[in-house]
Amino acid sequence: MKSFTYARASSPAAAAAEVAHTPGAKFLAGGTNLLDLMKLEIETPAHLVDVQDLQLDRIERTADGGLRIGALVTNTALASDARVRRDYGVLTRAIVAGASGQLRNKATTAGNLLQRTRCPYFYDTNMPCNKRKPGSGCSAIGGYSRQLGIIGTSDACIATHPGDMAVAMRALDAVVETVTPQGTTRSVPIADFHRLWGDTPHIETNLQPGELITAVTLPRPLGGTHIYHKVRDRASYAFALVSVAAVIQKDGTGQFAVGAIAPKPWRSSAADQALPQGAKAAADRLLAGARPTEDNRFKVALVQRTLAAVLADAQNGRNAA
Hints:
By secondary structure, the chain is of the alpha+beta class. The protein is 30% helix and 17% strand. The protein has 13 helices and 11 strands. A 5-stranded antiparallel beta sheet has the order 4-5-8-6-7. It has a 3-stranded parallel beta sheet with strand order 1-3-2, with helices on one face. Helix 2 (34-39) links the parallel strand 2 and strand 3 (47-50). Helix 5 (89-96) runs antiparallel to helix 9 (165-171) and helix 12 (279-286) crosses helix 13 (298-315). The chain starts with a strand and ends in a 6-residue tail after the last helix.
């Protein structure tokens, strides 16, 4: 690990300004992903601004009946909150499906949104990777790509967003709140938070340099049946091959997002509208324009089958993880 300097922030605006104006600076919260990447020297920050003292660790009701989740709320606290379990069960189920209890005790809401891809070539510093070193090439294209993206990818990168929590938040239409280095606040719909790779896959979100996430808000409860299905190679501590987060109403309408197939949790309004027609119709609309590789072509069928299982559980009134 390369040497770095360290400071503890006194306010969100001060933290944002310090990161924006210090070359090579990054925020540090739970550190569950960042520190691993620093050990491998994939991330080499010159300065860390620790935000753990900023008291962004509360879950509060919003004026319109939703929930405001502080950026530093741990995954454990969020998944176990009684209001989340009752009104946003898909979020609890998605969080519990990811990582170990120890990691969930340390990982934060904001950090979870910012976790980086698990593409094996991103972690292999001997191989070219446009995400790790812009302009160096993509070893995954033409390489081993079983776990990688089938839609929303580009000729520069076919990596996927690895998270579970963000998939549920996409299904719920969450909004990300931030503070900029100028001290102003901003609200970013989660649909616009993560970027498609294009020709700049090293830029993964639409955050400005130094912009700090302060909270995530959820809309009023949607009702319905909340389901999260995660398909993976082993029962625990594995990233998804395909995941589906869904809120399904009694009449068969609803909304859903799919994880592990794209640079961001993948959702389309056309696919949502097709849900009453069944899993095949909805999956076909969701994956229109997909470009799978020979290694991961199975994901096209797996999305349809996982969604079919979700709809069957909803029809039977089961909330499933």
